[in-house]
Design brief:
Two copies of one chain form a homodimer. Chain A has 369 residues and is of the alpha/beta class. Helix content of chain A is 39%, strand content 19%. Chain A folds into two domains: 224 residues, Queuine tRNA-ribosyltransferase-like (TIM Barrel); 90 residues, no CATH class. The first copy, chain A, starts with a strand and ends in a 17-residue tail after the last helix.
Chain lengths: 369, 369
């Protein structure tokens, strides 16, 4: 596990870097975006279409897979890769964020997070050890420690106590590790307080994690705090480890975070927006249901080479959406994910060529200046 | 338009034949199955995946496309092929069947079918001339005449009058034709009465249609009547024209109809069943939601080479279905359509090799004895 990550090139003007992350199921060129495959599927997209668009790694949700179909079922079926028909790298979260955002009647204690399933109301206890056990059963390439995702407006005292507990949970996760073929990332919490973020990072950095994530952002704190806290926290993390900004976000947030030194990203925005008919283009977002597109023969984005843009008009995509056709979700999700991957590929190209990583959605000189 | 259809080979024991149907968008080897693309999409399946599974021709629904997005819109966007990203042959129905099955408050007169849209209650008049105009705007390769689909239990007097009107409408459709690049098929009605079917076929056969369809079957009359009336009617139709059994049906019905001399088929069963979790396999249908599949590592059908069967287990497909994932509809529809196409390919192989066309869902010697 010693040379699983290398920084190949750095931007001279900021902290952006081109990296190479080696996992049991293949190599990831960073910066990279991870589509979210919550219930063992990236919604409405076939694995082969993910591969075709240049997707390198998926994210799976421990909370959902633990509740349904159950991690033992997935283990018995050969692990999550085999189960979902994706032979590339997979990162699993720890379930902590979903306990925070989805479960009913959760209660956090030193032992772990007790919660009721959003599916059937059954009661479960997610401890750090359990989070590791589940992720080892799933067989992901990168596991995350159990943390508590703190509301952005939590009182400082609560943030401090919770962050301290997250540190203890991180140690327990380390001790619980059994698989040699799985990387594990620690998660830096600390709310909106720079001193608590610094303290958490300083305590976590010496632990033998193969990477570090920044959590608790993109939860309603606003763009300014998101950018300042994420950049500040990234600057505290070791250069020789991959950095992952969890659950963020919009393309412009990701670009900003790449410049701050982050390597990995995930977000449901491209797929969720796709299903809702909000589409990313090089000239901004558009809502495909608008009447102005009813007769529009142009592709969604003339600078895009995805399957959707190469085959279909805005008028057709609007028709599918208005008619409630499943194909709308398929084509829209394909396009939005392609858009995200194109941005990341542009960042990597710019870094490789020694150009600045800039927001350039035209794609003609993707991500470069 | 003279040599658009040729019979290449005939079964010596029954009326089954191997044929070749030439259209403006390509050649169709018959017998062939047409997936139904009601609203300008085969539900949940990308055009490129249809192509890959060996799909040769799609069916589009005039009624739906006329109401939304409108045939003028589709014409302005370059026609239905361009609109839906399918460059192979398309057959459009006339809208008659949907007026019968979907529209509210329909009223049939000599002039045409007056009906209210199931979408917004607006009133429309579908005449034979209008049905031709719409299909010419859509630009399908094969258009169908407007007919009235009669309830299977209609009184004989009504059937006779309606069939007579269908004949007059067929003449009006012929007179209304403008496109040289579009074939047109007549439709034989006559309900469950052999003498009326014979009369309709004898009146229709001399008209200059490029093919003939048998309509008004598969509407609740039962398997025995379906088979006897369809086989009887097929026997009355000219050998040198393609024969199309509309809206039928189950794989075993199609096989039986191939032996009766039919060349073309369409049905929503494979896609609708797929979305509902009912899947065709070489050992029979199965309902993927059943608990017995929760841990089942086997593919749906071990004899199937479709994408779904090559990549995913029954346990995974059950999980997707139970979790309400869109991917369930995608993978199930892919498999069921592949199953139908494999049966048709098996029929063609058997005919080419001079073997009998038999029901052989094992696929090891697909369609052959």
């Amino acid at each position: 596990m010693s040379d699983y990550f290398s920084v190949l090139k750095k931007d001279s003007n900021n902290r952006a870097r081109l990296g190479r992350l080696v996992t049991s199921h293949g190599v990831i060129e960073t910066p990279a975006f991870m589509p979210v495959g919550t219930q063992g599927t990236v919604k409405a997209v076939l694995p082969r279409d993910l591969r075709e668009m240049g997707c390198q790694i998926l994210l799976g949700n421990t909370y959902h897979l633990y509740l349904r179909p159950g991690h033992e079922t997935i283990r018995n079926l050969g692990g999550l890769h085999s189960f979902m028909g994706w032979d590339g790298p997979i990162l699993t979260d720890s379930g902590g964020y979903q306990v925070f955002s989805l479960a009913a009647r959760r209660k956090i204690s030193e032992q772990g997070a007790c919660f009721q399933s959003h599916l059937d109301g059954s009661t479960h206890l997610l401890t750090p050890e359990k989070a590791v056990e589940i992720q080892e059963a799933l067989g992901s390439d990168i596991a995350m420690v159990l943390d508590e995702c703190i509301p952005h407006d939590a009182a400082r005292r609560y943030v401090r106590d919770s962050t301290e507990r997250t540190l203890r949970w991180a140690e327990r996760c380390q001790r619980a590790r059994g698989r040699k073929d799985q990387l594990m990332f620690g998660i830096i919490q600390g709310g909106m307080h720079e001193d608590l973020r610094r303290w958490c990072a300083e305590e976590m950095a010496p632990m033998p994690f193969e990477g570090f994530a920044v959590g608790g952002l993109g939860v309603g704190e606003g763009e300014e705090l998101l950018r300042s806290i994420s950049a500040f926290t990234a600057s505290l993390l070791p250069d020789e480890r991959p950095r992952y900004l969890m659950g963020v976000g919009r393309p412009e947030d990701i670009l900003s975070a790449v410049r701050a030194g982050f390597d990995l990203f995930d977000c449901v925005i491209p797929t969720r927006n796709g299903r809702n008919g909000t589409l990313f283009t090089s000239s901004g977002k558009l809502s495909i249901k608008r009447a102005e597109f009813a007769q529009d023969p142009r592709p969604l984005d003339e600078n895009c080479r995805c399957y959707t843009c190469s085959q279909f008009s805005r008028a057709y995509l609007r028709h599918l959406f208005m008619a409630g056709e499943i194909l709308a979700s398929q084509l829209n999700s394909l396009h939005n994910l392609y858009f995200y991957h194109r941005i990341m590929a542009g960042c990597r190209e710019a870094l490789r060529a020694g150009r600045a990583v800039l927001w350039d959605p035209q794609g003609t000189s993707a991500g470069s200046s």
